[in-house]
Design goal:
Radius of gyration: 19 Å
Number of helices: 4
Number of domains: 2
CATH architecture of the largest domain: 3-Layer(aba) Sandwich
CATH superfamily of the largest domain: YefM-like domain
Largest sheet: 3 strands, mixed
Structural class: alpha+beta
Strand content: 15-25%
Helix content: 40-55%
Oligomer: single chain
CATH topology of the largest domain: YefM-like fold
Strand order of the largest sheet: 1-2-3
């Protein structure tokens, strides 16, 4: 884990993002206090949601299923696709 001041992170933000993309976690400090952690994004959240919904089909209460369906429609309208796999 790498530690940087907010000023350092600001001046080299592209480098910070490159390091996070490579799996590094960067702790950002200001005045000696930790204020943020920048790290790699979790992978495959769409795949996990799809798997959960497939496993749970027919077992969720009707209101929850309706909420999920409405959310999927909103996302699909916005992205014109399906949940991403990665």
């Amino acid at each position: 884990m790498k530690v940087m001041t907010a000023t350092e992170a600001s001046r080299s933000f592209a480098t910070v993002l490159d390091e996070a993309e490579r799996g590094e976690t960067i702790v950002v400090t200001r005045g000696g206090k930790q204020i943020a952690v920048i790290g790699p994004a979790p992978t495959a959240p769409g795949r996990m949601v799809k798997a959960f919904l497939a496993r749970s089909a027919g077992t969720l209460d009707a209101d929850f299923e309706a909420d999920v369906a409405a959310a999927r429609e909103a996302i699909e309208d916005e992205t014109r696709g399906t949940w991403p796999d990665a």
